[in-house]
Amino acid sequence: MSPCRWWSGARPAHDAGVPSVLADLHVPVVAAPMAGGATTPELVAAVAAAGGLGFVAGGYLTQDALRERIAAVRALSDRAFGVNLFVPGPVREDGVAAYAERLRAAGYAPGEPRHDDDGYPAKLALLLAEPVPVVSFTFGCPGAQVIGALQDAGTEVAVTVTGPAEARLAVAAGADALVVQGTEAGAHRGTFVDDPDDPAGGEALGLLVALRLVAAVTDRPLVAAGGIVDGSGVAAVLAAGAVAAQLGTAFLACPEAGTRPAHRAALTAADGPPTAFTRAWTGRTARGIRTDFADTHGPAAPAAYPQVHHLTAPIRAEHGPAPWAGQAYPLVRTLPAAELVGLLRDEAAVAAQRVAARCGAPA
């Protein structure tokens, strides 16, 4: 099909194989939805123009702001794109007050911790009233009624999972595709439950293992996410059973990204520190470049999202953003998004030929 094929609005059929938006990608690359400003309409449109799939990050946005972002993408591009939503989690208060006091004692001026649902019902209502080609969910799986309503509106639905148990739940709810996230991924873990007693945020599966285990329990299309920054990584996950690779950190250094200067500098610094899991910034397990703040306060941070996110908002505003990054961030290239997508395509093709030759198959 033409790379300019616009979304038809027809409900996807599971027996047709890969959902139409994923099947129509000329480059099997998805730009991850990065909430907090890094994902811009310009980034989404540039990735789409190069043959990949961009996602509007709905997290932290109001319904009106999300509507504006969607309109901006549509003004820039006539190609398919997605929107990502955060599924609200349980209310947890244990340890929040003590963490706030700890930060005050360290000389910080924390904000007011509060629980909210991130405007989830309103944003979901928007996407039902004004459908988009793809909606993905992170931090949980919506019910079958919600997924079915989106599909009836012509939207394809993907759910982020981190292992086979979550994959079974998402498939049972009717998801068209699964985004399989390995522990290598930057930013928040997409686990359905952020266990307070588990610093890794759930079953700690690397991407390759997660892909193979999830592929063993479902034939739904899989999008691989976690530590992929170059074409060899794209080829590797395609060989492991994914239909596309989702990259986030790789796009943070693109000029179209809204990455804050301090974050961009940390990503591109020579010999930067390694990454680690921490709840220090948001109260939810996330991977970022190690900092003194995270090293000092992370072990004391409670599993209380989004209260801790609101608590540290003024600290991040004054002292710099949470430097989210996947484990392979030292391999990031500073390129325009479309150029990066093209390079990923070419590198993946070379890597695939190399594998074929090594296995004795004709190149």
Describe this structure in words.
The chain has 363 residues and is α/β, with parallel strands linked by helices. It has one domain: TIM Barrel (Alpha-Beta Barrel). It is 38% helix and 13% strand. The protein is built from 14 helices and 11 strands. The chain has helices spanning 20-23, 41-49, 63-76, 96-105, 120-129, 144-152, 164-173, 207-215, 231-239, 249-252, 261-268, 292-297, 307-319, 337-358, and strands at residues 29-31, 53-57, 81-86, 134-138, 156-161, 177-181, 187-188, 222-225, 244-247, 275-278, 286-289. The strands form 2 sheets. Strands 1-2-3-4-5-6-8-9 form an 8-stranded parallel beta barrel, surrounded by 8 helices. It has a 3-stranded antiparallel β-sheet with strand order 7-11-10, with no helix packed on it. Helix 2 packs parallel to helix 3, helix 7 (164-173) packs across helix 8 (207-215) and helix 9 (231-239) packs across helix 14. It is globular. The protein starts with 19 loop residues before the first helix and ends in a 5-residue tail after the last helix. Mean pLDDT is 93; it is low at 1-16.
